[in-house]
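step=encode ok
step=design start
structure_in=
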């Protein structure tokens, strides 16, 4: 299926792909140079779809690589990227000369089991909004984690999301505080179907 959505943000692009193809069909949508950089026996359908989406957005760029922390990047270009996938969707974000982070989740009951691992005391107002609130915190923190890009972040200790009543779409404010690193981030979010997508602004 073609792109599901594509929107332009400040010096960047956010795009979604609705995965209806088989793994084999997705392979036919990538040039050989991209396929050569992958272990096709091990790469998942979700990861393959994310690469197809990246190539659709910027077909002129070289294949995706990953740095020592597992963060994706384009070898030959001065752009920052982030990828995500959940359920039947893959997401891709590209920005010029600034870091970025994107996360998408399918909203299910399973998040209840891990709430205590990522929700701070000063974020508990979100729990009044039940699953939507839980996923708002989780997705926002995943997006911030990807923005930071160096791993070693504790979701309760180092990441904080200011409370704001949730709508179908909007902007949240998050904070990364670890030792000497302190960053305030705005994060756009959107609920659609049974999914939530959050990305840095």
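sequence_out=
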């Amino acid at each position: 299926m073609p792109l599901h959505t594509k929107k332009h943000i400040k010096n960047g692009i956010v795009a979604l792909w609705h995965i209806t193809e088989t793994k084999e069909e997705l392979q036919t949508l990538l040039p050989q140079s991209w396929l050569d950089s992958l272990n096709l026996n091990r790469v998942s359908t979700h990861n393959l779809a994310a690469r197809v989406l990246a190539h659709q957005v910027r077909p002129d760029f070289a294949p995706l690589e990953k740095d020592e922390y597992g963060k994706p990047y384009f070898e030959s270009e001065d752009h920052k990227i982030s990828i995500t996938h959940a359920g039947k969707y893959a997401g891709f974000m590209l920005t010029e000369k600034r870091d970025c982070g994107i996360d998408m989740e399918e909203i299910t009951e399973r998040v209840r089991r891990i709430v205590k691992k990522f929700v701070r005391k000063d974020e508990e107002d979100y729990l009044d909004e039940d699953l939507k609130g839980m996923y708002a915190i989780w997705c926002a923190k995943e997006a911030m984690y990807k923005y930071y890009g160096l791993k070693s972040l504790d979701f309760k200790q180092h990441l904080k999301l200011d409370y704001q009543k949730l709508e179908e779409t909007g902007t949240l404010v998050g904070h990364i505080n670890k030792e000497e690193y302190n960053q305030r981030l705005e994060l756009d979010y959107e609920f659609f179907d049974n999914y939530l997508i959050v990305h840095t602004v």
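step=design ok
step=annotate ok -> Residues 130-148 form the longest helix (19 residues).
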